[in-house]
Amino acid sequence: MLVVLLLLLLAAAVCGRLGVWQIDRAYERANLAAQQEAVEQEASGPAELGELLAPQEAFPGELVGREARVTGTYEPDGQMLVAGRSLDGVEGYLVLTPLRVSDDGTGGASWAELSGPPVLPVVRGWVDSPAPGPAALEVPAGEVDVTGWLQASESTARTGTVPDNPDGPPLTQDIAASALANTWDGPIYSAYAVLTSSDPAQPAAASGGPAPLPRPVLDGGTDVNLQNFFYALQWWVFGLFAVALWVRLVRDEMAGGRRERRRDRHPREGGRRDDDPVGTGIAGLPSS
């Protein structure tokens, strides 16, 4: 029985390990698919924002990291700094500026039924101080053609309050459309753009402008390939079956032992035991 136990435990361990391997494969295949999607998006070049997303429309996850192009006018009076954001391991601030959209590629059709031209939050770069120099806060005057990576609007789940910033723009913790809509007038997009280029150009980082940011991470790699996932479940079921088989063998062995002991306790013929030829009857009297 001990040998059987070791063999079944070994089989269960092998099945469990194979199940873990299948789960790793499930995530690996999903990550590869996400990387391929990112490469295809980058190769396709920027698309008109209006072809991808309309104002106040729910942001689909597959647009994360997609490059979009839009024309509008910056509103520097609404500019904010997003606190607690790191670049190359250094904590600092994102420069967040509202862009009043004038052309998203649809000729205004995407906001025709709304209250007016929408505003797109644009992250123009990163600074290391809540009181950056004038060049970091300077925006191109008039209409500007903006190209940037799309990212989903954040939630307002962070706790705590941000301090006042008397020497610079107001601070915020999140790039959340739900909160920004109360600060900036007009309809708002459920996404923000991480600036990659603009025409006219903003001040370069070497001249005191905000430092450019890398492309946002594509979130699609967190999904699981279902085929490998179900393979993993099958291996784990096989492992549980091996353990259940051992339990069944132990129960059968114990049941056999109980039957042997029961036969030893009760007479085999006429209520008589082999080691008690006389036997006992009611009230301990010899049975006839």
TrEMBL record:
The keyword Transmembrane helix applies. The keyword Transmembrane helix applies. Residues 266-276 have a biased composition (Basic and acidic residues). It is found in: Cell membrane; Membrane. It holds the Pfam family SURF1. PANTHER family: SURFEIT LOCUS PROTEIN (PTHR23427), SURFEIT LOCUS PROTEIN 1 (PTHR23427:SF2). This is SURF1-like protein.
